[in-house]
Protein 1
Amino acid sequence: MTESGKPILYSYFRSSCSWRVRIALALKGIDHEIMPIHLTKDGGQQFSEEFQALNPMKQVPALKIDGITIGQSLAIIEYLEETRPTPPLLPQDPKKRASVRMISDLITAGIQPLQNLSVLKEVGQENQLPWAQKAIISGFDALERILQSTAGKYCVGDQVSMADLCLAPQVANAERFKVDLTPYPTISRINKTLLALEAFRVSHPCRQPDTPAELRA
Amino acid sequence: MTESGKPILYSYFRSSCSWRVRIALALKGIDHEIMPIHLTKDGGQQFSEEFQALNPMKQVPALKIDGITIGQSLAIIEYLEETRPTPPLLPQDPKKRASVRMISDLITAGIQPLQNLSVLKEVGQENQLPWAQKAIISGFDALERILQSTAGKYCVGDQVSMADLCLAPQVANAERFKVDLTPYPTISRINKTLLALEAFRVSHPCRQPDTPAELRA
């Protein structure tokens, strides 16, 4: 927290995991400061001793709040949900909550880790695009099928939930990696609806304090 | 559910994600049946049309329960926690719950996806061992450091939590991939304590209905 007591979000403009948390903070109206951590500058600022002391995972996002520091986007969002429950990001019904968490985990454990920066470094320059595309397509094939039975206006019914906070940033990654979204009408429709919401707009990678001038919109 | 109304767990004996759920079912004393899905036989039984209809993610575990089918191990465990709260797998205190979820996500999104079967197939035979080791070592470096501030007898304090359900199966994977555990005294100590518990013993990969005879113990 800052001296004023505000939570601090350690974030990178393009990080889809950071974006999930930025949306949660915006939706819940939690006043906070953003501390940008540049994932490629200086060999990666997340590797600094100072940042590692804060988050041994050497990843963004991390949120300093209420005297603790939490890493992992879903753990952060669940904590915000438990301590700042309005508006809710999980439905009341346990079965619908299970759908929200299943979709969230499918994206955060089943897709994103396979196409993130550190893994793409390992697979070599020329393999990066097909590698990332394969991970996203495999995940989206499953996701589209699941959403066909869970979705209303949003991923699960007609209320924005944690699943939607995972969806929009993953679609942005898909677009960055030039994945054809034609086979995914439900994903595309929900994404479009989400991007029109204020909380998704203010938290968008193109509107962050660390967004480079040429990518701002 | 079976005709008798018992939940059905679709599981593979060696799958660390399946083992997490088997421990939860055992700890909570939830009577269930196990339906083995062999991940390599017949080209992978998870790819059958029948199983895909059940779980479009083409992965184990999946749990049929209360008229729904849930995929993703943590989503399943959170559902069990909400509908069968005794004994609890999450602490009462939101800050400790955040620690449990952070550790769980670190393992389930930060380590396991990078060393699972489908990814190792992609990296080629001769790269599999170093690839898996690198993912596990990187994650365990962070985990050891985090546990030094959260652990009591178990990952977070002195009660078994969802984090422990993720830890033991990941250590088993580390051993299978010949990772030197000497640098991880806290991880090793907790793992040893966990493996002595009845719920971890009955759910162990060496004691499943689909465990091959030569691996049984």
Note: The beta strands of chain A are 8-11, 33-36, 62-65, 68-71.
Protein 2
Amino acid sequence: MTETNPLVRKLGAFVALSDAELAVLASLHKRRRTFVAGRDLVHQGQSDQAAYILASGWACSYKLLEDGQRQIVDFQIPGDFLGLRSVLLHVSDHSIEPVTDIEVTEILVADLLDAFAQTPRLATAILWAASRDEAMVVEHLVDIGRRNATERMAHFLLELGARLALVGMGSKAGYACLLSQYLLADALGLSAVHVNRVLRQLREGGMVTFRDGFVAFDNYHQLADFAQFDPSYMDQRGPLLR
Amino acid sequence: MTETNPLVRKLGAFVALSDAELAVLASLHKRRRTFVAGRDLVHQGQSDQAAYILASGWACSYKLLEDGQRQIVDFQIPGDFLGLRSVLLHVSDHSIEPVTDIEVTEILVADLLDAFAQTPRLATAILWAASRDEAMVVEHLVDIGRRNATERMAHFLLELGARLALVGMGSKAGYACLLSQYLLADALGLSAVHVNRVLRQLREGGMVTFRDGFVAFDNYHQLADFAQFDPSYMDQRGPLLR
């Protein structure tokens, strides 16, 4: 296990991990599994399933309403937990679908408790990661409640870029983006046509271009101003616990 | 410390707490403080503040946008953490305002880490509480993204009732509700006039009456059907860890 493991990179932003803690983390990465794109690996309402750490590929978590509407809650990238919340809440409150083929490691609740018992600092680091996930959901709530469509898209693209940068998959120049316009629409509460229009506005404003699977920040600072993007909720300032 | 402590009641729904764990929880309740209604105790952007456990009274967490719009993210009731996320993320991503005069106990990050080291099961219980909070924010995201105003209000009143019931302050008959229509409006992304209209609809539909500081469920099951309220995300089925 080296710095190339995305979960280690991510938790390392919060806790300076000791060799013992790295070993406990490595022991969580035993059961590798793969899932194909487009087929749910967790279903809303399912009980007592495992949680996963995403090793490669992207996924999305979503909720379906009875009338068939879908709200994407968040996207997961390498180093993120899938279903951590569900494993603690007995019943999954959402579904998880791989956006691409993905590779994950499965974690049983018992493994997690063992890991916490061995190293309480790891528990704090995972609580930190969960807090950061919650902070992102809160931002999405503000996005949908109070930001217009163009600001919402700008904010979303900036946040995703900052998350990818933390695991070495993006920079302020841009990043490879595996999301279709349909997925963006379901995440931002817009129609696919509206997504198209909003992306054109941002491109013509010289701020950001999303084309051929790549998001290029044409003017990062202007875009961040426009979206009122304050990345402090992402907390990438470096380890709090040394 | 007895079952009358709301945090003990709440965590007890997830973990059957031992005497040793109860003692650690009690040790977290040392520093009592009070705050008056309407004056922020945590400011968005503030760094390195403490977290709190709410002992009595109600609070709300919210975000302000640069243009002055406000989005209430959630309300806190006795037994809830205030600012737990902020204490781990260095910088608070939201403000917290007491809705009533409140009594809290202050928790420093170091105390929390000590508590986790002494009893990893407590860490898991607190991670569970954080997961439950996140599940509620996710529901609010779905509320605002995909539910109409009347469903949104119905869902909100049901969720708040279920949370209050867990700490012994409500039932399926109803609960004392300390929220003004202005607070409801800022939480649900509605105007105060719209809140009024929606509450009248629900009352005239024979489902729920919010009047004189009391929410009375006139027909709980019809209301739950109407709002598609599935309380499983609240996870009140009884302890997972015994």
Note: Chain A has a mean pLDDT of 86.
Protein 3
Amino acid sequence: MEPVLESLLADAPLSQENERPPRLMAAMRHAVLAGGKRLRPILVMEVAELFGRQDDGVLTAAAALEFIHCYSLVHDDLPAMDDDDLRRGRPTVHKAFDEATAILAGDALLTLAFDAITADPVHEDPAVRLVLTRELSRAAGIGGMAGGQMLDLESESRARSEQEIRTLQAMKTGALLRYACRAGALLANAHEGDVDRLTRFGEIIGLAFQLADDLLDVEASAETTGKATGKDAAAGKATLVGLHGVDATRAELAKLQAEATALLQPFGEKAKPLIELADFISNRNH
Amino acid sequence: MEPVLESLLADAPLSQENERPPRLMAAMRHAVLAGGKRLRPILVMEVAELFGRQDDGVLTAAAALEFIHCYSLVHDDLPAMDDDDLRRGRPTVHKAFDEATAILAGDALLTLAFDAITADPVHEDPAVRLVLTRELSRAAGIGGMAGGQMLDLESESRARSEQEIRTLQAMKTGALLRYACRAGALLANAHEGDVDRLTRFGEIIGLAFQLADDLLDVEASAETTGKATGKDAAAGKATLVGLHGVDATRAELAKLQAEATALLQPFGEKAKPLIELADFISNRNH
């Protein structure tokens, strides 16, 4: 993953004979090349491989998704949003640079994602690339990630029902994880039924990811996660762990893990890496 | 233009069964439906009409470009950037709402643009819609508008050569105006030579727009423009007017106007609306 991210950043396309401002490039690299888990691009690649596709075009689509994820972290970390100084154990972009640069670096990464996803190697059929582009926009936009972040910020100031929490989480983190799995299947020309199956797998991954994240916030220390913890409760943010407690949340996670495994059962041994990913997501401690 | 912007905002597509957060929708509407000049979408539409196309698909592509323009204004107005309280005589988005909402509204508008530009009615050929999508990303990204804004922020802290100023302006405001004209020609299946001609026309419009803007900043009152003026000099921002003076700038504007008119001469009477637009841009007082 890292070489593709590096080269797409280094070769960030220009409008005409214009230049790449070095400070903006540096901030974008700081945001992207920070050794994240690369969960979303790995999902794209593993799902595509499940259906027999594994090449640079898949990597490019996966990188587009990672750019979207990284932009969202840069903007979420801003003082006006979650106000985080630390991300993956390093200073956040607005701390390493400044706020204006962080806003622009996020904007430029979001924009670059829509260049990468349209690249010729992504899929030979322009119509498929258009679908991938449009669905990426919807997963990231007002009905997806950006809308979820808005609901999350609002939830600091008022109580939320379980359904409201589930909706905001499906939007804020679920939409991109769902897209990752769906995109992998579309990239590899999977049959419609299989696209639906992997889409559902992505939704389960999204739910499990959020539950595990909420558990981590309650249980882990800042040392393990490399970021500040216990912030949800301090900020008055409603979570499912807060509503149902740690034990019930662990039980729900186990159920999701079983559902994920059952969904991929028809693919036999080939699905092992994806099932291991689902396990990792449910049980991660960072 | 307004009904299309309204309906694309109202029908902002959802990822799945998710919701549109009302506060984010309101902030996006505040940013877009504020009675701007609509210069970029009008250029798209007038150029497409020059080559005989005039329908809802053109309007949708034009709206995508306006969303990009409006997102950039919302982010540029933020305290960490240009710190403007007033835009078109109304409170800026972060003043009417708050900073976090303004950041997210900008992000969501940028994202929505890439949904709109991929819409089926934009062009019957998916390959053309992909080109329009990719070029929109490049005009808006690190080698275009976002990169230009970075250079502009940096120019507050050090002197810039004439070439540097021209590059930053070609990126910050030029790239989208160039794209507007180019997209209009591509939408209407203009021949390659005509696409190049209209691309050059867009570049001239971009130069003229920036020179007229710099002149306005020096000359106009806050009353006429509906925004704070004299800010460039106060911020120590280098402009071509600052380098060459008002008279030389007026002379360059007249030359650009003549070049724009000459470029469209082969189209005869049909090009009149575009030539009038070029004149308006060169001579506007707000």
Note: Chain B touches chain A through 62 residues (CB under 8 Å).
